[in-house]
Design brief:
Elements lengths: L1 H15 L11 E8 L2 H15 L3 E8 L10 H19 L2 E4 L11 H14 L3 E5 L6 H18 L15 E5 L12 E4 L4 H8 L14 H15 L5 E5 L14
Parallel strand pairs: 1-2, 1-4, 2-3, 4-5
Antiparallel strand pairs: 5-7, 6-7
Helix pairs in contact: 1-5, 2-3, 2-6, 3-6, 4-5
Amino acid sequence: MKILLLLLCTLLITEGNARSNQPQQARTILAIGAHAGDMEVSCGAVLAKHAMNGDRVVMLHLTLGEGGNPALTPEKYGEQKRREAEAAAKILGAEVIFGPYKDGEIPNDESVRRYVNDVIRQVKPTHIITHWKNSIHKDHTYTHAIVTDAVLLASLEGVESEYPRHRGVRGVYFTENWEDMEGYTPYIFVDVTETLPVWQEAVKQYEFIGGDISAFPYYDYYTSLARVRGALARATYAVTFTISEFGKRRNFDMLP
């Protein structure tokens, strides 16, 4: 665990120490969610912004979230969620990968860490986005732990994998999700005013966004949240992230 924390600390401090006058390097963003829809809803506007900037954006859905529709079997709803996820990814300008796990049954074990490790090694992300550590949904909590461990595994030469190690992750970011709010404090604000309409079109591909499946007002909540975060960021709309406490350090020669 200490090795993992030191690795994440190094990655995130490196990101924080970047100087604004340095040339912008190409990015590959890997957003890893427990269910199809998690990353699109919470940070899809940021993903769209990076895609519009020419960055590669990849979403990994560990499950389809197929258990969330009481009117359909998991098999039928899973087929629907896959179509919805593919349509949303196309609008956002992202690639999409579907994991092999079942909704509500993500195993918090070595096998899933090895799976995510292999995805990281294949995609070679510079930035990873996933869930915050505390959640009312165990799939989200497990995904956080799995992803942070997999970042370490992907960086190690001695870990058995058919893919070469990847040590190019500059930062791991945790997105703001209504189910993951315990202990969450916004740290990074990203102006998404330009891409909010893209986000709106993308998330509407999911039936659950409209309120016909779940009573939770997803669309209204995240639109309103983006407006509130935008006000704090002196923008019209913004999306926030937090990072590991070990990464909340910025080094300057003098006061900025």
